Structures are given as structure tokens and as C-alpha cells.
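thread: overnight batch results

M.L. [08:02]
morning all. the overnight job finished for the chain we discussed friday. pasting input first so we're all looking at the same thing
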Amino acid sequence: MPQANEKWAAFLLSLVVPGAGQLAAGSVWCVPWFLAAALLAGVWHVTGTNLTGALWHAGQAGLLVVLGLVSAEHAKRLLERRRAASDTRVLKSSLMYSSIRRSAVRLRLEVHVAEDADELWRRVSDLQSFLTIDPFHEKITLMRTEPAPGVHVVLWHNTFGRRSVRFGKILRWEEGRGYALSDLSQRGPHRDFPHVFFILVEPMNAGAESVNGQVRSRLTIDVRGKWTSRWIPAAVGLCWMRWVMREHARLLRKAL
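M.L. [08:03]
and the structure it wrote out:
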């Protein structure tokens, strides 16, 4: 199974040289990306001596940046975790709401799954596997064998190739239903967006239990935290966290 460090390495490679991450991933997609990069570089070279307008060169530079970003995202997705089954379990995922008042942040993601709540819980309660579906969680280490309230957790993060370690604790554990887990900076509980994940698994109500004969359950991921940055406006931080939650939803659709 691909690891987070592999996907971010591929991301950075293709960000610098479009197609390089695809090559590292062993994908034939490297060929069209290399050709696109070579074509754009060739146009730059041919027109550079004839068209010296600053706007023209800025446009070419912008195209190179966009090409690198798109190629990097494609390379990363090639190495993301996918479930083995071919049938679609996730029926719907949506960011229900996101808000920031003063420094308090709250985001909620709901995922409707085409399987019963017991089966969904079996996978959600496997913390080392489920929590690493998060876009930036590389590895989860429990300080005890079995999860339970009070058990400390080490959360290994990998953000665009930059690794960091954060610490948390299981605050609540309700077998078969859900749990709460804190995620805190090693610099202290009041630095670097301290937050808590509230994970809940529940069957859908009787009026919405099935779609095309499929049993449905609901997974809710509620994130509550505090925006602590003095340099980045809270509104910018909320936009960033909305993107992270939507990326998390996309990865859940692929992995569940």
C-alpha cells in the first residue's frame, strides 16, 4: 500500500518537473506530462528572443506553474490509497458546515455509506488505518495496545513533504458508535491550531435506510479547534481548512 511519504515525494517531483512524479510512481502517464513540459519549454525558448513583453513572459511563467501544480496533484493521486473492492460503498459525502467565530473553528463532514453501521465501525475503529486516510496523517501510534479513553496517541504528519509530530489523547470511546481524539502541537496545547476530532458512526433513519436495496449508515467527522496564528487571518485559515475537509472527503470516497 502506498505510504504518505511516497505520494508527497511524487507531488514535489512533478511540481519541479512535470511528469517526474508519474515516472517515480511507475506510470506511463509520465510520457504525456514530459511532452507537455517540453512543448511549453520549447515555446518559451523560441518566442523568448522575439517577444520580450513582460506580460507575455509572465503568462508563460504562469502556464509553467499551473502545469507543475496539475501534474503534481495527478502524481499524488496515482499513489493514494484505494480500496480493493470495485463496488461503490460511499453513496454521498458533503461538508455540512464550516464556521469560525472569533478564534473558535468548527467543521463537519458527513459521509453516507452503503453498508451497515457495524461493518463501518469495524473499519473506523481501526485507528492506524482509518485516521491515516486524512490528507496529512502519515502514521498513528497508540501508547497502548487497545484504544480507550485516556490513551495517548502520536500523530505523524506529512504536509506537502514536510514532516512534523503532534500529540493527542483519546478523550471518549463508545464501542460501536464513536470516539473523540485530540490533535495538539508539540510546542504546546495553545499553539498551531489545537483541535479535536469527533467521529460518529450511526445507522440512517428508517425512512432513508436503503438506496437501490443498499443498507446505509452515516459517518460524521466533526472538527472543533482554535485558530491561533497571529500572521494568517482567520478567514484565510478557514478557507484552507475547508479545502482540507473536502480533500478528506475525496480520500474517504476512495478508501472506504
